[in-house]
Each structure stands twice: as C-alpha cells, then as structure tokens.
Amino acid sequence: MGWIKRNLFLVVGGLLTLGLLGGAGFYIYKGWSNNSDATTALNEIYDKLQQLSQNQPQPGDDRTDNMKLARDQEQQMHDWMAQAAGYFSQIPPIPPGEVTSKTYATALNTTIYQLQQEARDNSVNLPPQYYFSFQAQSSKLTISSGLGPLAQQLGEVKAISEILFAARVNNLDGIQRVRVSDDDAQGLQGDYIDSRPITNDLAIITPYVVTFDTFTPELATVLSGFATSTNPFIVKSVSVQPANSQVAMGGNPNPYPYGGQPNPYGQPNPYGQPNPYGQPNPYGGPPMYPGAPNQQPPGAPGGKGGLQTVLKEQLLRITMEVDIVKLLPKS
User: Fold this and answer.
1) Where are the beta strands (DSSP E) in 165-265?
2) Cα–Cα dist 312/79, whole Å
3) What is the DSSP code (8-state) at residue 189?
C-alpha cells in the first residue's frame, strides 16, 4: 500500500491507459463487425448485378439490343389485346338509339316474327306462340320501365337464337333471361332466371339459360358457334340428359307406352302383346315376355350375324348457361 501511495499518479495513469486500450479494442471490434456486414451486403449486390447482366432485362450489347426486344414484346402485347377485343364486340340493341314504348313494341314484334321464320326455315321446332322470353311485353303498348335494358336483351336473345338455328337443333324449348322491367314481374315464370348481372372493374356479365333438344353433332355445332362468334359469349355450363327421360318430360311417362305387358327386363314391349313366336330375349336372360317358350318355331329364320350395336344416337335435352360479357368504356 505504501508503494501505491508513493506512486499514486503512476497507478492512476496505468488504470486509465488500460481503460483506454479496452475502449479502443471494443471500438475496433465493432467497426470490424460493421465492415463484415457491409462487405457481405456488397457481395450480394455484386452477385445480383452479375445475375441481371446475364439475363435479357439488361440493355444488351453490340449483338443483342434488349431494349428493342422489350419494345417489340410490348407491341405484340398491344396487338394481342386488339385482336382479343375483336371477340368482345357488343351486341347492338334492338332497336338502336333512343328507345320509346312505340319503337320498342314495333321492333319486338318484327324481331319475334323474323326469329319464328328463321326457326321454320331451319326446321327448328318452337313452343306454340313462343315470344322468346318476351311474353310480358308482347301485348303491351306502353312499357312501364327498363326500355334500354329490354332493347339490349332483345338483341342478345336474337344473337343466341340465330346460333341455335344455324346449328339446326331439333327443338328450342326456351330462353331464360334476367328481369329488367317492372312488367317482367307479371311474366311467365319460365321466361326468367333468378340470377343477376355481375359488374366488375372491366365488364358487365349478363347470364342467360337456353334449353333445347338436339343430337351430339348439332350440340358440337352450337358450341362451335358460340366459340367462334365475334360477340362475347361464354358457355358457363352444359347439362345433358336424354330428351325422353322423366326429368326432361317433366313427369312420369306411361311405363308401358305400347299398351303391352310389363317387361321385367327394362325394355318396352314393341308388339303390344306377349311374344307369340317364342323368340329369345335379344338382351340376354330368360324370354322377354313371361309365358313365352324359349325356342324358335320350325322354319323360323335364324338371327342375323354381324357386330352388336354398342352406341346408339339418341335425342338429348341440353340446358346451357351462357354469359354475355359487355366491356365497360375505358376511363
């Protein structure tokens, strides 16, 4: 202790020196750590720049002008957009321009008559006195509301009907649309659907439901007609079932349509009576009609050879949901 007292200034100076050396070491370590982090971040930036320089977004060199490629790709995108817009040509309303009750009534009657004539010319059957979902407006001289939307719907229904007529479907059972007028509240229930138009930032989507009877080739022609039309049709769904099914007929048909005996094997009796010739059941199993012997009479001709019919074309009931897209004007 005596030595410390005699050399107090030396001891204090040594302690201060050690403190300063410790602070300097900590500062150097802190700076080294920051430099290491900065070096790592800088190396990542260099790696990113090197990667970008090897890709197409870079401006290019004497052999490759990536800026020109970018401009060409942008022009290709604009060309595609212009071509796609050609498939969204708005269906013109009927009548065009400003619509009054008088002009709409005249246009409605004229259009319905034209559609009925086109259906007859293309052998398409229509329901009796069918007005193509405009039964509520057919007998009115004054339309209470919705003249503009009604005119637009008349043009759209005409466009849909003409695609079906061009495909020569067998029967047009009905076209259903959304209600747009107060008069539609008193219309036939079968003329309307409960869906509503959908509006987004780009377009207004209006739904329709079409029901018709046809065979598969005509169905393919209908789908092709909607797909290749310049009007904005989108087939949302297609429901297919046999046209003579109980669901399609809207009830329970006579289980023995020919007035014969009930067939326990699920096939109608085409003769109206039990089979008197004892012909075997062509569908396999016991004789087709109860009580008939399972053998042929003497001298009866044998069955014809050849391939068995596996697929037989039949009339189909088609229920198709069709959306029409109307692009909104550019702002």
Assistant:
1) 171-176, 198-199, 203-214, 233-242
2) 47
3) G
pTM of the model: 0.59
Assign 256 a pLDDT band (cuts: 50, 70, 90): very low
Residue 306 CB burial class (10 angstroms; 0-12, 13-18, ≥19) = exposed
Predicted confidence (pLDDT) per residue in 154-200, tens digit? 999 999 999 999 999 999 999 999 999 988 888 888 999 998 888 88
Mean pLDDT of 273-284: 51
Instruction: With beta carbons less than 8 A apart as the criterion, state whether 186 and 139 touch.
Output: no
Closest CA to 194 of 185, 202, 174: 185
* CATH class of residue range 90-247+316-327: alpha beta
In 3D space, the residue among 178, 174, 143, 149 whose CA is nearest the CA of residue 160 turns out to be: 174
> Judging by DSSP bridges, how do beta strands 233-242 and 198-199 pair with one another?
unpaired
One-letter amino acid of 54: Q
Q: What is the DSSP letter of 238?
A: E
Distance CA 242, CA 182 (A): 36
Please give the pLDDT value at position 284: 55
State the CB neighbour count (10 A cutoff) for residue 114: 13
Q: What per-residue confidence (pLDDT) applies to 257?
A: 41
Buried b (16+ CB within 10 A) or exposed e, 133-172: bbbbbeebeebeebbebbbbbbbbbbbbbbbbbebebbbb
The reported pLDDT for the residue numbered 193 is 93
- Which residues, other chains included, contact 68 with Cβ-Cβ below 8 Å and sequence gap of 6+? none
Which two tokens mark 206? 């209006």
CA distance 81 to 83: 5
Cα gap 80→87, rounded to integer Å: 11
Contacts of residue 197, defined as CB under 8 A and 6 or more positions apart, other chains included, come to 178, 204, 205, 206, 207
**Across-strand partners of 207?**
323
- At how many degrees (to 10) do helices 147-166 and 216-228 cross? 130
Q: Tokens 């602070």: give the residue.
A: 23
Residue 173, pLDDT score: 94
